[in-house]
Amino acid sequence: MATRKETTPAAPTAAAPAAPAATTAATTTATTTAAAAAITTATPAPPVTAAATSTSENAVKQVQIDGLVVLKIIKHYQEEGHGSEVVQGVLLGLVVDDRLEITNCFPFPQHTEDDADFDEVQYQMEMMRSLRHVNIDHLHVGWYQSTYYGTFVSRALLDSQFSYQHAIEESVVLIYDPIKTAQGSLSLKAYRLTPKLMEVCKEKDFSAEGLKKANVAFEHMFEEVPIVIKNSHLINVLTWELDRKAPITEKHELLSLSSSNHLEKSLQLLMDRVDEMSQDIVKFNTYLRNASKQTQQKNQYQQRRQQENIQRQSRGEPPLPEEDVSKMFKPPSQPPRMDSLLIAGQINTYIQNIKEFTSQNMGKLFMAEALQNQAN
């Protein structure tokens, strides 16, 4: 799998709306699988400017997506998303009251390190300009990304969505899961950062005290926005016509009792994340021990100084000069806790996916048992 070039996200400017640029980091975490690492390091660039402005009272409460957008996202993954490869693109549309209407999208091309002349910003501007010339909605309202077995909760996604949401308040990120979609149900979810997490990211205080003060847990990081897929009447008629002509045998695939390797892969990724959480806990416990040990050494030093000053005073000698104890005993650096929250959020996502998968399979087993009893 080719490594895509790492770029620095461009800050929002007063230029025309632009699309996100797909980039990837050069290194991956050793404890995760190569597939999961490819997902967690995919990072789109933030928008060049905001598509619209609104107040906090007009927060997005629903996402309405045209069926054409869904088909474009699925087609993009089928053409470029080989295996665990991440595909990303731009969402275009407009905001109506508290509803975000996504009416169009276009993919962002993947490029390798050899494509040094590829200009992400220039590509974005050209695409937006071309859409505007043909009278297609060109306002930037977010971005989409594919996922691999639900592996999308990462620092890269958080930073990217914060940049988008900071520049475009209504922006969302659509997460498309092709593996769950292949099992018979479309898996497309819209996420936004919660106001609490937005404040923490603005302050850039990811310490344990900062997160505790903001009352942010892994449940308060992302909020899911309900999605409604809308089609025109002609498209609905065409869909019913195609469904009527589809062979009946193909529909029986949804009742297949085979779980392939989906459950095994999900459990493996879950165990990898649990290992990461364990390592992170060990690091934090080590920090607490070092901080406690240093506090004891600082107190012992101050007590020795105080006793020596008492002895010098009894001998009529001047006390020792004051010293800056904080410079002598520098506190150990506290590890950031945001990574722990992200790992906990990803673990929760894996658990929910496993729960949904097993519940569906249990339902199929009961249906198969009822059909067998009826046949007998």
CATH architecture call of the largest domain = 3-Layer(aba) Sandwich
Task: Domain count, please report it.
Answer: 2
- Portion of residues in beta strands equals 5-15%
Average pLDDT confidence is: 76
Strand order of the largest sheet: 9-8-7-6-4-5-3-10
Report the order of strands and helices. EHEEHEEHEHEHEHHEEHHHHH
Query: Helix share of residues?
Result: 40-55%
Derived from helix and strand composition plus strand pairing, the structural class reads: alpha/beta
Description of the molecule:
This protein is α/β, with parallel strands linked by helices. The protein has two domains: 22-246, Cytidine Deaminase, domain 2; 268-375. It has helices spanning 34-40, 67-80, 120-133, 155-167, 178-182, 195-203, 208-214, 233-245, 248-251, 262-314, 325-328, 338-375, and strands spanning 22-24, 42-44, 62-66, 88-96, 99-107, 140-146, 172-176, 188-193, 222-225, 227-230. Strands 9-8-7-6-4-5-3-10 form an eight-stranded mixed beta sheet. Strand 6, helix 4 (155-167) and strand 7 (172-176) form a beta-alpha-beta unit. The chain starts with 21 loop residues before the first strand and ends with a helix.
Record the SSE blueprint.
Blueprint: E1 22-24, H1 34-40, E2 42-44, E3 62-66, H2 67-80, E4 88-96, E5 99-107, H3 120-133, E6 140-146, H4 155-167, E7 172-176, H5 178-182, E8 188-193, H6 195-203, H7 208-214, E9 222-225, E10 227-230, H8 233-245, H9 248-251, H10 262-314, H11 325-328, H12 338-375
Parallel strand pairs: 3-5, 3-10, 6-7
Antiparallel strand pairs: 1-2, 4-5, 4-6, 7-8, 8-9
Helix pairs in contact: 10-12
